[in-house]
Amino acid sequence: MDEIAYSNKQGRELSEYEALCKRCGKCCGADTAEPCANLAKDSSGKYRCASYQNRLGLQRTISGKIFTCVEIRDVLSKGLPYEGCSYSR
Predict the structure, then answer these.
(1) Would 55 be classed as within a structural domain?
(2) 5 inside domain
């Protein structure tokens, strides 16, 4: 497989993986007292990250506490903490 075909394959797989998300916001703290400051709820009640393309790395909670946002795959590889998360299937 050449480099372009491989890159295209990775892009498709990433899109398929991200399409599994139900936008519950649990991984961003929606059901806690300290959600990420970038967590936004849309009119349909689903959550999204207001800074999705720049989400990884240091971020702040709504009260200003600093934390490190990581890819959901990194979290899941250590054990699923989010009951009902589509990525666990």
Answers:
(1) yes
(2) no
**Tens-digit pLDDT profile for residues 13-31:** 888 888 888 889 999 999 9
Tell whether pTM > 0.70: yes
The full 3-state SS of the chain, as one line of letters, equals: CCHHHHHHHHHHHHHHHHCCCCCCCHHHCCCCCCCECCEEECCCCCEEECCHHHCCEEEEECCCCEEEECCHHHHHCCCCCCCCCHHHC
Q: Domain range holding 32?
A: 23-80
Whether 15 is covered by a domain: the verdict is no
Look at the chain and report how many structural domains it folds into: 1
pLDDT digits (tens, 9 = 90+) for 60-82: 999 999 999 998 888 878 876 77
Q: Which residues of 43-61 are buried (b: 16+ CB within 10 A; e: fewer)?
A: eeeebebeeeeeeeeebeb
Name the β-bridge partners of 67. 59
